[in-house]
Prior knowledge:
Number of strands: 5
Strand content: 15-25%
Radius of gyration: 15 Å
Helix content: 25-40%
CATH superfamily: P-loop containing nucleotide triphosphate hydrolases
CATH topology: Rossmann fold
Structural class: alpha/beta
Keywords: ATP-binding, DNA damage, DNA repair, DNA-binding, Helicase, Hydrolase, Nucleotide-binding
CATH architecture: 3-Layer(aba) Sandwich
Number of domains: 1
Shape: globular
Protein name: DEAD/DEAH box helicase
Pfam families: DEAD (PF00270)
Largest sheet: 5 strands, parallel
GO biological process, one term: DNA repair
GO molecular function, one term: hydrolase activity
Amino acid sequence: xxxxxxTLKKWYNNVVIPYENFNARFENYPVxxxxxxxxxxxxxxxxxxxxxxxxxxxxxxxAHRLLSKDVVFxxxxxxxxxxxxxxxxxxxETLKELKTKVDVLTLTATPIPRTLRMSMLGIRDLSVxxxx
Length: 132
């Protein structure tokens, strides 16, 4: 979480795709966390999109909905992706476009062969978390 803390200190927006307990982890900190999901009402989505655009949300949690064209970040600093293999080609292309401008942390217990190969060749950095 050190990189996330650094980007928060610089007032960047951060994207976490997805992490279910994130809100609880930050409840004692001055960090604004929200969720953008297709399962929320249109009104709730519109309110969240406006707050993201204005930079009023520090960490936005979601999945594919965060990659929609109507999502505009005021100053994106970090994207955390859990289980990259769940995204289709179109979504991965959108992520590639975002990756040129921000740091990306991809977490997986079952890497897709291409990602694993890129890591093994040194094209992508690789870290192993050995403790639960």
